[in-house]
Amino acid sequence: SSALRGLTGELKGTYYPLTGMDKKTQQQLIDDHFLFKEGDRFLQAANACRFWPTGRGIFHNDNKTFLVWCNEEDHLRIISMQQGGDLKQVYSRMVSGVREIEKKLPFSRDDRLGFLTFCPTNLGTTIRASVHIKLPKLAADKAKLDSIAAKYNLQVRGTRGEHTESEGGVYDISNKRRMGLTEYQAVREMQDGIQELIKLEQAA
Q1: What does the entry list as the binding residues for ATP (predicted)?
Q2: Model confidence at 151: pLDDT above 90
Q3: Between 166 and 189, where is the model more confident?
Q4: Do residues 180 and 124 make contact, with C-beta atoms less than 8 angstroms apart?
Q5: Which of 9, 54, 70, 102 is deepest in the core (most CB within 10 A)?
């Protein structure tokens, strides 16, 4: 928490430990869709939720565009986000935040596997670049949407992540590959794939 509290400039914000969190703060984090819950049965089976909620917390900057989840699944889950389509700004903020945090908290990295994570599917760059988007025509046939997305190495999920449903016709679409490419290439792959999906939606 001291490393996060030391962030400055655009990244400056507040750390909220889950232990002892008051109801008002809890409700605000729920309203902002920032508060994470205890893991599902798969994480529990893997002992990812021991001693819950001790040692867990959420940090976000004053603009609510940069978040860090502490000990939810991984030790740190670093998130950069904002409304609109300015991926460059989102990515630049992410890079800046990661560099500042790494000055105080070195990340575990393997020469062959890349950055080490709790879930093996995130090994490599660990980066998941995603957008929330409505594709009503393509989504009319979810299996077809999944098939088309797979051609561009994209994954279609509900708006609240893995194993969740779409809300209001909005899907979370992200890059599927995180190993064997750079962070920039992963983000670019997502951007290129999304642009192709938009073209197909408009032509449908």
Answers
A1: 33, 77, 128-132, 157-162
A2: yes
A3: 189
A4: yes
A5: 70
- Checking if the pLDDT of 131 tops 70, the result is yes
CA atoms lying within 13 Å on the CB side of residue 183: 11
Ramachandran class of 114: left when φ > 0, alpha when ψ lies in -120 to 50, beta otherwise: left
pLDDT single digits (tens) 46-76: 888 899 999 999 999 999 999 999 999 999 9
Q: Within 10 A of 124 (CB to CB), how many other CB atoms are there?
A: 21
Binding-site residues for ATP, please? 33, 77, 128-132, 157-162
For the domain made up of 1-107, give the CATH fold. Creatine Kinase; Chain A, domain 2 (3.30.590)
Nearest-angstrom CA–CA distance, 88 and 107: 24
**pTM of the predicted model over 0.90:** no
**Is the separation of the CB atoms in 58 and 35 below 8 Å?**
yes
> For 8-55, where are the E strands, in sequence order?
13-17
